[in-house]
Specification:
This protein is α/β, with parallel strands linked by helices and about 950 residues long. The protein contains 28 helices and 38 strands. Helix 13 runs parallel beside helix 15, helix 23 crosses helix 25 and helix 27 packs across helix 28. This is GNAT family N-acetyltransferase. InterPro entries: ATP-grasp, CoA-bd, GNAT_dom, Succ_CoA_lig_flav_dom. It comes from Pseudonocardia oceani.
Length: about 950
């Protein structure tokens, strides 16, 4: 075991420390031998320099970082969701945190101190206190978790002298491993704080060039052993004298990333669950005036028969709607889980103080006057969220319509809408509060039942990404609907949506396709153009619609009918004209008519109509059915509707009806659920054939996406990331020279066809002799080489005299005698593969075939990084001209597998080296003999921020 230089100190700190036996695997305390533990607490936050000041107005970053610590790494600060759904603020330690650290240590039980320090350590001596709070943020790093202005957990690592290793950054030279330790306050064990600290310590260590952690844990400390074992790293263990010595590499592995994502999902889902499943609700600003929003939301809670107590808070009224009122939320005698805030923005600070004191878990702020009102309101909104997060609360809003849950065990209508849709299995997230009431009314009018509804308004905190996490494991939700105006973290949205859409369809309206985002909703959002939205949704399997009407059309079909197994669609009706309209719509939408439309005639009885429908839907040649019917005057249409519903029951195939002028799910087409609302098996009706077919086509495309294999994020063989990172670190920003570009591509297993850059005809002829004939001669400069007319290129030159003539031609054209001489690659289709900068995602991959027509038509396919093997296959088959690669009209097909491999390798460059701001492989010659890269351009620049690439954090 490696011991530290301070191992002879006579404090318990110098022994190995362990985690608390209490709590789950992600909490408690872990220790290390010697100074690797270096203190019960890795930091604290007290005084005015930390995010949580003594006045309780916590959560903002340190107000005076230079005075706090030289080189303070502010980018390490994060708000993180604990496993119980509460928020903790995590940041590096500051020298001013000493008093809070002492309070934290005093709060630990004797048992926790023993497990952490392997012996009694009742107080921290001044000498140790300074060492614990003054760190260099490189070889010695310490983090604290804060709730308000109190430390609830600490973690630290201290570098160990080693063999040198990778060297690290300044301050870690010669160090490649560190001892790690953490401890949580007894009352906060079981909240996953240990795993959170380990993630952030490992990320900081990797940033500082470290590659390995060591720890020592008492054998009896089972909880802390689980923290390390379940983190996803490959841990080696040695046992001696009742102590486990653990070592593991901290580079992310597929398993460790999966563990991180799983914990993130459970924690963020729990935070949403707390808001949607409260056991009690307080309405702050509940007014006796029916025209006030505080009165409306309180009345709606009562009208909806919420299963728990509802407390009106009004300092000037004894009661509201006959319910005793309280002057402040702190005066309520019982616990309050959810607070609905309906007071003017100017009074929210006072409300926040009382909610923080009461321990409220979540706030729904329906008040306006925040970011929606300008710069002053934006500042108030930020303070609102900072204070709430610092004290463990989530915020929905401000300017929100509210939240609803139709579960009969909850019956929550904390919204401004007087009535909700019936119970269903559809979750709805709306970024707009103004549209919320109309959305709920439209859902109710069409017979679309909901499980839960959240209107986030300004979306200052809780967002659509949080709801995706919740709905992934919510057993009451089968379909997800989104109305989005902006994205907060589009990379995270893509990751979550791709995962969720594999089991539950997501239908989204993204407004602002041709305009800037609403200012109130753009403050915490990333700009994203519509082309990128299209790529994101397509890659993640999200069903994109343009209007709310299309949203509900698609949702009705998904909510009540199964997914189709294929595109074959039968048509049955009593009008030849309508049958033709439907058939045209099927062909326009990419669906296949399953034979001619069946016309039962206008005089057909309900039984005859049902027989035709049954024969069609049960045919082996049919995957879906469109029933088009104009009710005859003599017989009520209701009889035909009931006959249709009974005929298709249990078919296992999706059925849509077009009963003209009927929209939604009429009673005759519905199979009632437990509360009388339409349930699975109900047949949705559309007012026109076009809308019915369009909805079916969207669902069919989604079913086709979902049936494809789940892509794997593979790393092709022969990639040397360490060499690539070291190379990039030595290169200046801007376009790389040829030698550097070739070296970088070689790190990723992408060879360029051999070339030389020379001056003059004689040197070109000599280079051609060296490379071997035939060769290509290319002018230097993109102006000449990358034109589609190839004016600056001479190909298939087989002799030295031919080389000289080619050079003379190019000198006459360009006035420059410098040329490229390149060995000819096998002839093939010319393609272009690029990494293009995107303001929202950092990088996109673009692929297309070369040529004037392709450039004019913009025939390119795109994918968001990272790309899976399935993404690579889809990318090279995405352009409209892609059939040329597969052997168009009898031509020899190209090696598509090799082309996909090049895509995966370029995707790794974009993923692992964000400093590569653009890269173009042009041209790439694809043929049956393989894929050959004959040109490359690489540009380096400042790495963009990636909010979804590190340890867990809100955002």
């Amino acid at each position: 075991m490696t011991r530290s230089p301070h191992a002879d100190r006579d404090t318990a700190e110098d022994g190995a420390a362990g985690g608390s036996a209490a709590g789950e695997s992600a909490s408690g305390a872990a220790g290390v031998g010697g100074t690797g533990a270096n203190g019960a607490a890795a930091a604290g936050a007290a005084g005015t320099a930390g995010p949580a000041g003594a006045d309780g107005q916590a959560a903002s970053p340190p107000t005076d970082p230079p005075a706090a610590s030289p080189g303070y790494p502010r980018h390490w600060e994060a708000d993180v969701v604990a496993s119980d759904g509460g928020i903790v603020h995590l940041r590096p330690i500051l020298p001013s945190d000493g008093e809070a650290l002492l309070r934290f240590h005093e709060s630990l039980s004797e048992r926790t101190r023993y497990l952490r320090f392997f012996g009694p350590y009742p107080r921290i001596p001044p000498r140790d206190l300074e060492r614990f709070t003054v760190v260099d943020h490189r070889s010695r790093v310490a983090f604290i978790c804060l709730l308000g202005d109190e430390i609830i957990a600490v973690g630290r690592y201290e570098g160990l002298p080693g063999d040198g290793g990778p060297g690290g950054t300044e301050g870690t030279a010669g160090i490649d491993s560190a001892e790690v330790a953490f401890v949580a306050r007894d009352t906060h064990q079981g909240r996953g704080l240990g795993s959170i600290l380990l993630e952030h310590l490992a990320a900081a260590a990797r940033e500082n060039g470290l590659r390995r952690f060591e720890a020592e844990v008492l054998v009896e400390n089972h909880a802390m052993v689980r923290v390390f074992r379940q983190a996803g790293y490959q841990v080696s263990r040695e046992f001696a004298d009742g102590v486990l010595h653990l070592e593991f590499d901290i580079d992310p592995t597929e398993k460790s990333l999966a563990v991180r994502d799983s914990r993130e999902q459970r924690a963020e889902a729990r935070s949403v669950h707390n808001a949607l499943h409260p056991t009690s609700v307080a309405v702050i600003g509940a007014s006796t005036d029916p025209s006030k929003i505080g009165h409306a939301v309180f009345a709606n809670l009562l009208r909806g028969n919420f299963t728990g107590p509802v407390y009106p808070v009004n300092s000037e009224a004894r009661s509201v709607r006959g319910v005793r009122a309280y002057p402040s939320v702190t005066d309520i005698p019982d616990d309050v889980d959810l607070a609905v805030v309906a007071v003017p923005a100017a009074g929210v600070d006072e409300v926040m103080d009382s909610c923080l004191a009461k321990g409220v878990k979540a706030l729904v702020v329906v008040s306006s006057g925040f970011a929606d009102s300008g710069a002053d309101g934006s500042g108030a909104q930020r303070r609102l969220v900072e204070e709430a997060r610092a004290h463990g609360m989530r915020v929905i809003g401000p300017n929100a319509l509210g939240v609803a849950n139709t579960d009969p065990e909850v019956r929550l209508n904390a919204t401004l809408a007087p009535t909700l849709p019936g119970r269903g299995r559809v979750g709805f997230f709306s970024q707009s509060g103004a549209l919320g009431i109309a959305i709920l009314a439209a859902a109710r009018g069409r017979g679309l039942g909901l499980s839960t509804f959240v209107s986030a308004g300004n979306r200052a905190d809780l967002s659509g990404n949080d709801l995706l996490q919740y709905w992934q494991t919510d057993p009451a939700t089968d379909v997800v609907l989104l109305y989005l105006e902006t994205f907060g973290n589009p990379r995270k949205f893509g990751r979550l949506a791709r995962r969720l859409a594999r089991t539950k369809p997501i239908v989204a309206v993204k407004s602002g396709r041709h305009s800037a985002p609403i200012p109130a909703h753009a403050e915490v959002s990333t700009p994203i153009d519509d082309a990128s939205v299209k790529v994101l949704f397509e890659q993640a399997g999200v069903i994109r619609v343009e209007t709310l009407s299309e949203l509900f059309d698609t949702a009705l079909l998904l909510a009540y009918q199964p997914l189709p197994d294929g595109p074959r669609t039968a048509v049955v009706g009593n009008s030849t004209a309508l049958g033709l309209l439907v058939t045209d719509g099927l062909l326009d939408s990419g669906l296949d008519p399953a034979g001619p439309a069946v016309d039962v005639g206008t005089a057909a009885s309900p039984g005859e109509f049902a027989a035709a429908v049954s024969a069609a839907v049960h045919s082996d040649e049919c995957d879906a059915l469109v029933a088009v019917f104009v009710p005859p005057i003599a017989i009520p249409g209701a009889e035909y509707a009931r006959a249709l519903r009974e005929a298709v029951a249990g078919s296992g195939k999706p059925v849509v009806a077009v009963f003209l002028a009927v929209e939604g799910v009429p009673a005759e087409l519905a199979l009632p659920g437990p509360d009388g609302s339409p349930g699975p098996g109900s047949v949705p009706s559309f007012p026109s054939p076009e809308r019915a077919v369009a909805a079916l086509a969207r669902v069919s495309r989604y079913a086709r996406w979902r049936s494809r294999p789940v892509g794997e994020f593979v790393t092709p063989a022969g990639i040397d990331l360490d060499r690539a990172r070291a190379l990039v670190a030595t290169l200046p920003e801007g376009r790389l020279d040829d030698e550097s570009a070739v070296a970088l591509l070689d790190c990723f297993g992408i060879p360029l066809t051999a070339f030389r850059r020379v001056r003059g005809a004689d040197a070109a002829a000599a280079a051609a002799d060296e490379l071997g004939y035939p060769v290509a001669i290319k002018a230097v400069g993109d102006r000449w080489r990358h034109r589609t007319d190839l004016v600056g290129v001479r190909l298939d030159i087989g002799t030295a005299p031919g080389v000289r003539r080619a050079v003379e031609d190019l000198v006459a054209l360009t006035g420059d005698d410098e040329v490229y001489v390149q060995r000819m690659a096998p002839k093939g289709l010319s393609c272009v593969l690029e990494v293009v900068e995107d303001p929202s995602f950092g990088s996109l991959l673009s692929f297309g075939l070369s040529g004037v027509a392709t450039e004019l038509l913009g025939d390119r396919a795109f994918r968001v990084v990272p790309v899976s093997d399935q993404d690579a296959a889809a990318l090279v088959r995405g352009p409209r001209a892609a059939p040329l690669l597969a052997g168009y009209r009898g031509s020899e097909p190209t090696d598509l597998d090799a082309l996909e491999q090049i895509v995966l390798r370029v995707g790794k460059i974009a993923e692992e080296l964000p400093e590569v701001r653009s890269l173009a492989l042009d041209p790439v010659l694809a043929s049956a003999q393989g894929v050959f890269v004959t040109g490359a351009r690489v540009v380096l620049g400042p790495a963009p921020s990636r909010d979804d690439g590190g340890p867990r954090r809100l955002g």
